[in-house]
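Review form for a predicted model. The reviewer records the input and the model, then writes brief findings.
Reviewer: anonymous (R2)
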Amino acid sequence: MAAIAIVIVSHSKQLALGVRELAAQMVQGQVSIAVAAGIEDPENPLGTDPIQVYEAIASVFSDDGVLVLMDLGSALLSAEMAIEFLPEAQQQKVYLCEAPLVEGAIAAVVAAAAGRNIHQVMAEARGALLAKATQLGVSPLSVVTDNIEAINPEFPTKEIRLIVSNRLGLHARPAAQFVGTAARFQSQILVQNLTRNTGLVRGDSINQVTTLGVRQGHELVITATGFDADEALAALQALFANNFGEDNVALNSPPAFHHQVTPATHGELSGIAASGGIAIAPVVHYQPTHITITEYHVDDPESEWQRVQTAIHTAKQEIQAVFSQASLQIGDTEAAIFDAQLLFLEDPVLLEAAHQRILDHHINAEAAWQAVVDEVATSYRTLEDSYLQERVDDVIDVGQRVLRLLAGNLPANLHFDEPAILVATDLTPSDTARLDPTKVLGICTTSGSATSHSAIIARTLGIPAVLGVDAQVLHLADGTLMALDGESGKAWVEPESHILDLLEAKREAWQTAQQEARATAHQPAITRDGRQVSVFANIGSINDVQVAVANGAEGVGLLRTEFLYLDRTSAPTEEEQLEVYQAIAQVLDNRPLIIRTLDVGGDKPLPYLRVGFPEANPFLGWRGIRFCLDRPELLKTQLRAILRASVGHQIKIMLPMIATLTEVRAAKVILGEVQAELNQAGIPFDAAMKVGIMVEVPSAVAIADQLAAEVDFFSIGTNDLSQYIMASDRTNPRVANLADALHPAVLRMVQQTIQAAHAAGISVGLCGELAADTLATPILLGLGLDELSVNPQSIPGVKQAIARFCIVESEAIVASALQQDSAVHVRELISTSVIPPA
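Model under review:
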């Protein structure tokens, strides 16, 4: 076995295992490959763990060297931290390599199996992307002979010419076999693709061999110079004669379908169950507008590049709008699909490739953009990992959006007048996110998969979907009655009456269950022993409040007012703010509304308000109430708007980032001044409006008894409180895991705050992310919180969780949790605590 070892670090365990399997196949187990990927969290398994990386390195450590390949972000930080755990002598033998994960791993193992030293293995891994780029024509390899050593004149050069017969040419596995064979010999082996008229490349370099782009039918010339040249060429010739062990007959046969259409009854179609539920409605076909691209010569390439940039800018705005809407409809997690699309449009490699293509070829923006997007899509399709292959949908989705803007086309119409089942070849994530679930009752497509982003969005929207059915559905006339069952993956064209009866019964049962869940969401959250806990919503826009009320919010526990101040060049006026606060209060219909005053500065700067100095530690800097007290006019304007909106509504004011009594008193002085001004002007407001504070700074916990005497309520912000208590920046992947709100240190601070509040007779809520974590519900109940404020989508689940527990049992869990030594053990304790069903 080769002595150099490889470690693959990835956010995704599945991805890492797939890369390892692919790399291992290249060298038949000759190289030690370890994996450190994912985290032990069933809800969110994506992430990296430094300890796991350390253990992986230690498991394959070799004095000849360990090469660590990482995907992105925290993977790099975890790898760096892992090295610090190793003994100093071993640290010198571990090399972090910035090479691409899939291509880099393949290149590295082939080089390691060939007996290369660690620096040569690193060089091969680093050059791996060049091979793919050359094949796709993105970054042509200008000089492929740079690394060819001077030929030894002692030995004559031998040469053979071969026609490649295996169907897929020198794709990854045959290329690896070729390089592995070439590396066994002392002779220098060079290869040239005569068909493509390439230069000579080294036969022992996987990257250079891959750049030849060898396909079936191509003619190669292979030269060998050295004492064992004849043996080397004979061994290579044998590989070609044997088709590199591939069965061409099998390769040439058509690919098998994922499923067969097996009609069990008249008009029944089988497909992939992608989103549960029953739909019965007439068919409406959806055909996305096809954009025909014509390539033509341009005299001013820079103006074409400007067109691309303008289209990308507009596309970003459109995607941002889809993202915002999707966040409300399907929640932030699923909406992050569109966040990824924004990143695609900011990819410097992609943008540079498009720019270069326009400059080099003097072609129009549409043709250049389409070519670059096609290359990226093709590179995804050729990956071995099926999950990554499915991301082609997102690449094409965002690519088509820019193309449509370049072509001046309007977005496709997805607004249906009557309820229908949408039939299409496929749907992009953007298309799916725009669907109205009250009009699109079901989705039936001839392609797609249950793990595609479109399927995920359909599930979250609650639209039943059956994908991958036979293409005959595309020939159905609009208006044809169809039924589909998204749970079984079956669809029926003009279903017979007994099928309709069965499906109607199943649909009614499903709708009853849905209605019960919604009804529960609109009922008070009461524990099994009768304690009622208010469940409010955290919101950041007018749209949010409508979603919150629909999900059963009993009020708004946190209105983040920052959205009024962002994406503009000056602060919002009093009238602008008043209009928004009144609109939100009206939707709430006399439910409580807690408005947090502006919480920017430090980590959330406003360019038009900044003095301009950078802060070394923005989380410890000029933010929250500190910022507003330094800008009293800004605070006064906001307080005037809030006070004016308070007439006839249950509005409360909440001050963020309070660390001292002085800050509370200073803010109350400004509030008093505003009230006096409004009184003098005869402008009505709620004189009894309550004032509370966010408890998110440890000093506020320490003096909670004094603060409780000054204000009407507390709201604990566990996101910031956790990071301040644990002295760990939650945006820094190296230490973010320390900022865990379930750590006993944080829980003790929360308990201290609640006890101080209740001793003073004031209420206390919690509005951090912890409130939405139903695993934490018994802890929060046991601590004695009066109110939980969560994102709108989490309200039904939190209410159901509260109803499953009783206070006495919850208090017992808390008593034990406060004695644990880590957040991990607190979670284990909660998970193993047996709570009888409600």
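Findings: Confidence is low (pLDDT under 50) at residues 139-147, 248-265, 834-838.
Further findings: The chain is about 45% helix and 15% strand.
Recommendation: see findings above.
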